[in-house]
Specification:
mainly alpha
Length: 256
């Protein structure tokens, strides 16, 4: 199931996880039930069934709490926040993301802190709370750098750059966005690259680099089309279209 989920074969993965959940219930393995519920929630959400995802997450959460599994508790809370955020309910997303963030700080989960801080920063930017957003993006960037992996840096750098563009602090934005672009090009992340290039354009124009700004705009459109075409080819159902729309609307860092 995990391999199929990573490959985007969601209906197949769902079948395996549901079968596993049935087996775990028969065995009365609370940890096994919790893990299966969490995985099914992830798949349900990616298939566009937000309400179904929440039902599974909300059953998994008290089990994680009872077992004292704070790592899994943080993961489930983060995923609950993602469901609410994708539905446009920023206030409902904030509470579970904030709690997940606090747990990850308490247990010293460096990568998790970076992920949660980035998610909270996205909400702050949406609310127009730019100072708080920059503070959280700085936190996410700092912890992402501590992980030693460059891929985790792309989102907080892009987010920070986008806020600085909103504030018309173009020189500062340019440095963050160009570093994010370099990381995304290396990892061949088409959706992320297309999104960041949109923010990069105004920075280049502010520097008088008009020709580069035009190329950036064209590249962004081309990359977005390539990414969307690839997703459409791999989508196994109508829910694939909803997945495309939700993913393109906002890049949120998932726990799994």
């Amino acid at each position: 199931g995990i391999v199929q989920m990573q490959q985007g074969r969601y209906p197949e993965a769902l079948g395996h996880f549901e079968s596993g959940l049935h087996s775990m219930r028969e065995l009365r393995s609370r940890r096994g039930i919790m893990t299966a519920l969490s995985n099914i929630g992830i798949i349900r959400n990616r298939l566009g069934d937000a309400r179904g995802a929440l039902r599974y997450y909300e059953e998994a959460l008290p089990i994680a709490i009872d077992l004292g599994d704070r790592q899994q508790q943080a993961i489930v809370l983060n995923n609950i926040g993602i469901v609410h955020f994708m539905a446009g309910f920023l206030d409902k997303a904030w509470a579970p993301w904030r709690e997940s963030h606090e747990i990850r700080i308490a247990i010293g989960d460096i990568a998790g802190i970076a992920s949660c801080a980035n998610n909270l920063a996205i909400i702050c930017r949406r609310r127009g709370e730019y100072a708080k957003a920059l503070e959280l993006y700085a936190e996410a960037e700092g912890y992402a750098r501590r992980t030693g992996g460059r891929d985790a840096l792309a989102d907080p750098l892009a987010g920070k750059g986008s806020v600085l563009v909103d504030l018309e602090r173009f020189d500062e934005a340019l440095a963050a966005l160009e570093e994010s672009v370099a990381i995304l090009r290396q990892s061949k992340n088409l959706s992320g690259l297309a999104s960041v290039l949109i923010s990069l354009g105004p920075c280049l124009l502010a520097r008088g680099r008009v020709a580069e700004a035009r190329r950036t705009k064209s590249s962004s459109a081309s990359l977005a089309e390539s990414w969307l075409s690839g997703i459409a080819r791999s989508a196994a159902s109508r829910s694939g279209a909803r997945l495309v729309a939700r993913t393109w609307r906002s890049r949120v860092v998932a726990s799994r």
